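hey so u asked for the seq, here:
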Amino acid sequence: MSALTKVFVVLLVVLSILMTAATVVFVSRVENSAQLASDAKSEAQRQSTRANTAEAAAAAAKAAEQQVRQAANTQVAQLQGQVNTAMQTASAKDVQIAELTSKAAMQAADFTRLTEGLKSSEDTKSKLQDMLVELRKTNDDLSKKSGDLNLSVTELTNKLDQTERDRKWLAEQLTQVKGDAEKLGAKLKDNGINPDDAPPAGSRAGAVAINGVIRDVRPIAGIPYATISVGSADNVQKGMEFKVVDRNTGDYLGDLTVDTVEPNEAVGRLSGKRIAEVKAGNEVKTQL
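ran it, structure tokens below
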């Protein structure tokens, strides 16, 4: 077999195969077309049935729509009446709201005035409270000062009472001393003795030597008096005279004439040119 023959054989085989394939494809398409036509017919019947059903449903829906529309119109009319009534009510409410708004504005203005008045009142109240605190503090200070003054007045009254008692007692003593001195002077004159030339009591020759110190000095009824550290236990007697001497310098400062005598102390009246220098601690002696 020649090469050309082989080529023709191959071509024939290829053409046969292509013919067979084309036939198979054609037959398949024809069968599919028939099936599609059948399916299309069935689908058309179904669509026709659906269309009839839909037409019936549409008719029913239209009837229902008319009923619904009538009912809706009725409801709309009713609602329109209700709306009109509501609008009338709202109009009346608007009038009431306007009145209430006006009242609210007036009340707000009144509230503002009341708030300002309350604030002013609170400020005044705060100032009054501050003033009250200051007044209470001042009153406490005055009460304390008054208590101190009352205490001082009480002490001064007690001292004044004591001073007055001392003054009365000294006045009585002075009156008695003056009477005794007058009687003694009269007796001395009767005996031919001049009292002005007599030596001071307690300092004459042979008098008991008594030494002491001044404890304190104080004026009574304007007269200087002093308390000394010796009394009746040391043989001090009323009318006895002591010389007051400065312990540091030894200077003679004046005389002390005993008016009252206690067991361990005595009180006497001071006299002399330097009695202003007499103080606690100075010595007193019956004899220099």
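Residues 201-285 form a domain with the Elongation Factor Tu (Ef-tu); domain 3 fold (CATH 2.40.30.20). The two ends are 199 Å apart (CA to CA).
lmk if thats what u needed
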